[in-house]
What we know:
Layout: H1 2-15, H2 25-34, H3 40-44, E1 50-52, E2 57-58, E3 68-81, E4 88-95, E5 98-105, E6 119-129, E7 132-136, E8 139-143, E9 156-158, H4 167-178
Parallel strand pairs: 2-3, 5-7
Antiparallel strand pairs: 1-9, 3-4, 3-6, 4-5, 6-7, 6-8
Amino acid sequence: MIEESSKIQSKTELSMPVQFLKGVGPARAEIFSKLGVETVGDLLEYYPRNWNFLPEPVKINQIKPNQTVTVIGMVESIDYQNYRRQPLFEAMISDDTGVCRIVWFHGGYLRNQLEPGMILLISGKVTLYKHQLQLTNPKFQMVEDQHGEPLENLSGGVYPATGKLSSRQIKRIIKPVINPAWT
């Protein structure tokens, strides 16, 4: 009898409209609907199109050109240059072993997000520009301290997305459905 009621309950949960999940609401439910996702069950069957796994963080003095790396460092300075043909946002980050230049082309949106003193987890490909190590257009996440949050926030599934619903937003919505302990 108990098994039967739990089966019914799980069917109800799977058939629950995606609109009632945390972070969705009517507007996002409409966008999900265009992707073919109407219910929680549909969301669970909305598989990633690719998987992205970031390397373990390393110290800045260990990185070399042409490597894909993850580093944790403090923002030392920022600069936005909008007078260039391709405007760019630049941040210098450091850890206890060195300094690295981070560049985002068309990164004007970062002026209100990043400031000196913040600690970032940054992942991308290392290049050498004017004899200085540089990461160009890397993924990043702000962290509370040097130990930071787990890499799962930038690693994992890459979901088919739309202009109004990013893969990261889909991942944030589906994560507690897959494992409620992650909320």
